[in-house]
Design goal:
single chain; about 80 residues; alpha+beta; 3-stranded antiparallel β-sheet; 3 helices; elongated
């Protein structure tokens, strides 16, 4: 029962921050060839950095460290 209550709390938290996270997400452009995200006028970001920025805007950024991005081979500065 405690696991169920925890999942409900997380779902409510994510739903509450979804609009802010989607606003940040919509500003990024992912280059699959380079495995980076171009975001604003700044330098390219790794997919993990972009996930952290998007999820942080939604108020659940610490989950980005739990649910890390795997399988990318390129890094910014290519």
């Amino acid at each position: 029962m405690a696991g169920y209550a925890r999942r409900i709390r997380i779902r409510i938290r994510i739903t509450g921050g979804r609009a802010a996270a989607e606003d940040v997400w919509s500003q990024g452009w992912c280059c699959a060839r380079c495995a980076v995200v171009h975001f604003g006028a700044g330098p390219a970001m790794t997919l993990q950095e972009f996930r952290r920025a998007v999820w942080g805007a939604g108020g659940y950024g610490e989950l980005a460290e739990v649910h890390r991005v795997y399988g990318t081979t390129a890094a910014p500065g290519y």
